[in-house]
Amino acid sequence: MADYAELIRTIVSRLVTKPDDVDVRQEIEDGKVKVSIKVNPEDMGRVIGKSGATIKSIRVIAKAAAIKSKDKIDVVVEE
After folding, report:
1. Integer Cα distance of 72 and 51 in angstroms
2. CA distance linking residue 14 with residue 1, whole number of Å
3. Domain residue spans in the chain?
4. Rounded to the nearest 5 degrees, what angle is found at the Cα of 16, between the Cα atoms of 12 and 27?
5. Sheet (strand 32-38) strand order
6. What is the DSSP code (8-state) at residue 68?
7. For 77, which DSSP code?
8. Which InterPro entries does the UniProt record give (predicted)?
9. Do residues 43 and 65 make contact, with C-beta atoms less than 8 angstroms apart?
10. What DSSP character marks residue 20?
11. C-alpha closest to that of 40 among 60, 21, 24, 67
């Protein structure tokens, strides 16, 4: 299993105004890789984006990275 958390952390840290508050965790849940993103509440809108466009793009990148190792991946933003 690849380190998807580091990939997501790199992307999200460049989007937010407080990169030191970015916390990304990776775990296995029901046979899927679950990557949880936690950011400063002020940066939540930057990570989600207008109509969810930014988080959708992050999910597409994560799924593309998971194709080679045939991992199923789920990326969630926690409050």
Report:
1. 24
2. 24
3. 4-78
4. 30
5. 23-29, 32-38, 73-78
6. T
7. E
8. KH_dom-like_a/b, KH_sf_prok-type, KhpA
9. no
10. G
11. 21
pLDDT at 1 over 80: no
The 10 Å CB-count burial string (b at 16+, else e) for 24-48 is: bebeeeeeebbbbbbbbeebeeebb
Beta strands in 31-79 (DSSP E): 32-38, 73-78
Collapsing DSSP to helix, strand or coil, 18 comes out as coil
Superfamily of domain 4-78: K homology (KH) domain (3.30.300.20)
- Tens of pLDDT, residue by residue over 34-69, are 999 999 999 999 999 999 999 999 999 999 999 999
Output 3 or 53, whichever has higher pLDDT.
53
Amino acid at 45: G
Residues making up the chain, counted from first to last: 79
Global confidence as pTM: 0.92
Q: Is the pLDDT of residue 27 over 80?
A: yes
